Amino acid sequence: MTTDPTTPESVTTQRMPTDRPGIDRPILPGERLKAQRGLELRAKSWRTEGLLRMLENVLEVGEKPEELVVYAALGKAARDWDSYFKIRRALTGMDTDSTLMIQSGKPIGVFPTHSGAPRVLIANSNLVGRWATTEHFYELYDKNKIAWGGLTAGCWQYIGFQGVLQGTFETFAAASKVHFDQDDLKGRFVFTAGLGGMGSAQPLAIWMLGGVALVPEVNGERALERQAHGLVQHVTHDLDEAIALCTDARAKGEARSVTWVGNAVEALETLLERGIIPDIVTDMTSAHDALHGYQPLGLTTAQAAQMRSDDPDKLIGLARETMVRHVKALLNMEDAGAVAFDYGNNLRSQARDHGFPGGFRLKVFTEAYLRPLFSRGIGPFRWVALSGDSADIAYLDALTQELFPDDAPVQRWVRAARLHVPEQGLPARTAWLGHTQRTRMALAANAAVARGDIGPIAFTRDHLDAGSMAHPNIMTENLKDGTDAVSDWPLLNALLNTASGADLVAIHSGGGGYAGYMTSAGVTCIADGSEETAGRLERVMNADTGWGVLRYADAGYGEAEETKKREGLGLGF
Ligand code: NAD
User: Fold this and answer.
1) How many domains, in total, are found in the chain?
2) Which segments constitute the Urocanase N-terminal domain (predicted)?
3) How far is the CA of 223 from the centre of ligand 1 (A)?
4) How confident is the model at residue 107 (pLDDT cuts 50, 70, 90)?
5) Lower Cβ count inside 10 Å, N or C end of the chain?
6) Does 366 fall in a domain?
């Protein structure tokens, strides 16, 4: 596992300073922007400098920086290059008591506010209910009137695959515990697919848990790139070889990860025909997007690209037909004894919209495994060393051990992450911390920044957190009180974090194939070591996780109700 070798330092260091991709001009295919390192400020404060580095970082680690795409085929950091450069200019020039407003990746205005207010407020891809359709989204997208920010792309909170790696690690660990009463995946065979920005975390997470992973990916170049980064061990074009590698490792109880370059559905149907049933089956192809993401059976990636421009409707129809077969194959696997779950990529909805609603028999991963954690405000928290110094992450890893010695899952994860997670972009760490834990962590880190032990740190999280997402087919499916689609919760979360003084707050809704499916909220705070920041960090961390606990308590989850009472959350009477 090495540092991301796709970051050609030579590109940024050997060119003239007026020709730096992503700084002086757009990034061209094959080029990378390297986020600023060091302690020198370009902006007027660490609060804006930190956010600028987070923006640069999502392009440094993103999938297609030349198109400003961070992940999931269309999730963008900014609307277009003109918007991107204007955001940079605004962040560097802004005073420390003003707020930059960004609408779907386009900066619109800077307003005088006050020093305790957020420096950046973002709304991405929000459409009025009846108009929140894929068709209307693309109509606006084609006119460059809207952009989709994914969850963490458009608000600069993505840190590469580590972000989803821990979620994947915890999800598979929980599934193994629930179904096999095992703490790891030793001797277990997991089938999933897709090595995209998110999906590429899967083979590593399964391998880290001691299991066997078969992860088909249609894009051969991408598969080799993932292999070069140490995310998957074996890449082969021969399906028989891939299956043999997996069954052999399962029989021996060895950890192994294998990618077959080909279509997930072909692999699943072949396994079924041969009666080879994995222990767990799921999927993380880009099924949310039938036009730009998911690849139909029978087409090469080049043929799909051609059809995308020549006959997009035909491509969408073919993709959805394959998705129906995909869902049916997962159901057949479940019938044959595999544990099958939906991994939040809208595959079941796409199949339903193409006339096959049966996929909803598959449980979504959040309901099946993660809800007890959300009820305690535990979720995908993360921090980023803005100076670029890996020693800061080592310091904070040690701090988690000191602050939470009895939290076994956190201890296990941090140890595993130190060993196996390669650095990608600015050094970062995810750790699923809960209510009060995040506050303690952020305050202790801020004090370390103040002492000069470490450089400034950005604290942020994925949107898939307790109080910050309404997504009836991923996050909030089948809630006890039926409030799956109520988006008041993430909207109020964003308002609360704004009132509490976060540095960046974002409200996102789905775009592309996700249009109309979700609303979520993101938050980032920069720990610059000041006392004023300590106050804001305490308020924001407590509010953000406290709101999550209250959301689940309100929906009727007993564990959340207990946490609420224990921590004195709620109305106070
Ligand atoms: P991505 O677009 O970066 O990658 C998807 C990959 O799937 C691509 O490499 C593509 O070539 C491959 N692919 C497409 N169709 C295929 C097929 N039929 N067979 C094999 N490979 C195929 O997307 P991503 O960022 O990895 O995200 C994957 C999905 O997961 C998206 O739908 C995303 O919205 C969803 N997601 C889930 C979570 C979660 O927590 N579970 C979080 C974020 C995103």
Assistant:
1) 2
2) 33-156
3) 13
4) very high
5) C
6) no
Q: How far is CA 311 from CA 20, 52, 99, 286, 293, in A?
A: 37, 39, 43, 20, 15
Supply the pTM of this predicted model: 0.85
Q: Which atom of ligand 1 is nearest to the CA of 264?
A: 19
User: What is the phi/psi pair of residue 433, to 5°?
Assistant: -100, 155
Residue 463 lies in a domain: yes
Residue 454 has pLDDT above 70, yes or no: yes
Atom of ligand 1 nearest to the CA of 301: 11
Indicate whether 408 pLDDT > 80: yes
Same domain assignment for residues 201 and 345:
yes
The answer to whether residues 154 and 166 belong to one domain is no
pLDDT of residue 3: 32
User: Looking at the domain assignment, is residue 14 inside a domain?
Assistant: yes
Residues 6+ apart with CB under 8 A from 200: 161, 226, 229, 231, 232
153, 175: one domain: no
* Confidence at 15, pLDDT banded by 50, 70, 90: very low
Q: Is the pLDDT of residue 111 over 60?
A: yes
- Residue whose Cα lies nearest atom 34 of ligand 1: it is 345
CATH of residue 312's domain is 3.40.50.10730
For residue 520, the cross-strand partners are 469, 508
Name the residue of 148, 345, 346 whose CB sits within 8 Å of the most ligand 1 atoms, as the mutation to test its pocket: 345
Distance CA(203)–CA(234), nearest Å, equals 10
Give 318-328 pLDDT, tens digit per residue: 999 999 999 99
Helix or strand holding residue 306 (H, E): helix 301-310
Residues 6+ apart with CB under 8 A from 34: 7, 9, 12, 56, 60
User: How much is the mean pLDDT over the chain?
Assistant: 94
- Distances in whole angstroms, Cα of residue 441 to Cα of each of 1, 387, 436, 459, 537: 27, 19, 9, 10, 10
Check whether residue 216 and residue 93 sit in a common domain: no
Q: Does the structure show a pLDDT above 60 at 17?
A: no
70-74, 130-134, 267-271: range with lowest mean pLDDT = 70-74
CATH classification of the domain holding 493: 3.40.1770.10
Domain hosting residue 512, numbered range: 1-158+371-573
DSSP string of 239-305? HHHHHHHHHHHHHHT--EEEEEBS-HHHHHHHHHHHT---SEE---S-TT-TTTTPPPTT--HHHHH
257 and 283 co-located in one domain = yes
Q: Is residue 415 part of a domain?
A: yes
Average pLDDT of the residues in 433-442: 98
- CA nearest 168: which of 432, 372, 411, 376? 432
Atom 38 in ligand 1: residue holding the nearest Cα: 344
User: Exposure string (b/e) for 136-171, b if CB count within 10 Å is 16 or more?
Assistant: bbbebbeeeebbbbbbbbbbbbbbbbbbbbbbbbbb
Token pair of 383 as six digits: 């921090």
77 and 1, same structural domain? yes
Residues 320 and 345 in one domain: yes
pLDDT of 12 reads: 39
- Evaluate: CB of 32 within 6 angstroms of ligand 1: no
319 and 396 co-located in one domain? no
